[in-house]
Amino acid sequence: MASSEDARGRALTRVLRASIPAVAAAACLGVLAACGSPTSTANSPQPNPPTSSSPTPIRSASTGGAQPAAVDPTRATAPGAVPAKPPTVHQFTPFDENGRRLVHARAAGHGSCFATSIAVPVAGVFRCLIGNTILDPCFASARESTPPTVACFADPWSTGQIITLTRALPKYDPVLTEGNPWAIVLGNGRRCVSVTGAVPALGDVDLTYRCDGNDAAGITVNDNGTVTAHYGPSAGPLVDTAVLDEWRGRSYRFAATP
């Protein structure tokens, strides 16, 4: 009997040992089913989706990113600002080649000339003084007169002033060029005349012309020969407009008197 009982005990022990791994495995599967797999993301919190599919711009730390194009508050462009053709050129000649005066002028007293004209920088045209007033341009006749005189004009449209000279004209023959026009007429009808003193500036524009209504202008000569004026109050803003007409001075006295 003892041996028979021992045999049954050993058999039961083998069954129990064989069943322990299976029970443990079943228990583990039950736990996973109840708690979920540790690698599953089904119930894990998700990051918020992006609000836009556009890429985020990258800004430079040194510059703060791209800057908008600069806008010059002193400049604007008016309709018709682009000139259709070069301006019509008018020659202003108060004396003909024989010394005869062609335009009206009145006697203004005695004075003298001390330099070549700034407004009309050609030979035979001068910068003169009467009292404490500078007159420029002053045109010398091609023929000598007694007493010697010059005719001075504020602009091509005004009556001139005849100055009787108290001394000879400057005794030098400088190298001269025509430079910019003496006077211009703009597309808006305004007339402007060259400044012969200190020239104000606004931004990158030298306001070399004084215009009707105390306005001012600078000019740009374009590659095709047309001329654009940058016109407006000296404090701005300036408006680009076409130059339709220009005046240039001429003297038949081609060189200063030696």
UniProtKB/TrEMBL annotation:
Alphabetically ordered keywords of this record: Signal
Signal peptide: 1-33
Protein origin, superkingdom: Bacteria
Low complexity bias spans: 53-63
Disordered: annotated segments: 38-89
Name of the molecule in the record: Uncharacterized protein
